[in-house]
Design goal:
mainly alpha; about 0% strand; about 50% helix; about 120 residues; 4 helices
Length: about 120
């Protein structure tokens, strides 16, 4: 695939270096378990960048620009990663990001973000 111009939502090389091992391990585990049925052909970084693009711009999946993998592929990875807890792992279990001290007080939420019944 020809290299595409970068979008502002794309991961930097440094951030990708933190994320790539977890996504690669996830893909290998699914391949080893026989889940998915096909040989993986899409670049995980491009799929992750596409998810970030959707998140940042707020577009519908079907409006994903054509220089990313197909929206069906990107959405399929998004749902699989969500179901398998990959995003939670990336947010909370990564040793590269500092975790909050257990004794640190929780910050107060602004009144506008308080869930309503």
């Amino acid at each position: 695939m020809a290299e595409r111009p970068a979008y502002p939502s794309d991961l930097s090389d440094a951030r990708w270096a933190l994320i790539a091992p977890r996504l690669t391990a996830w893909r290998q585990a699914r391949t080893d378990a026989g889940i998915g049925g096909r040989t993986a052909t899409h670049d995980l970084r491009e799929i992750f960048n596409a998810i970030l693009y959707v998140n940042r711009t707020g577009i519908a999946w079907r409006y994903l620009p054509h220089d990313f993998p197909s929206w069906q592929t990107v959405y399929g990875y998004f749902t699989a990663w969500t179901a398998d807890g990959i995003f939670t792992q990336l947010n909370y279990d990564s040793p590269a990001w500092p975790s909050p001290r257990p004794d640190a007080p929780r910050s107060r939420r602004p009144a506008s973000s308080t869930p309503r019944a």
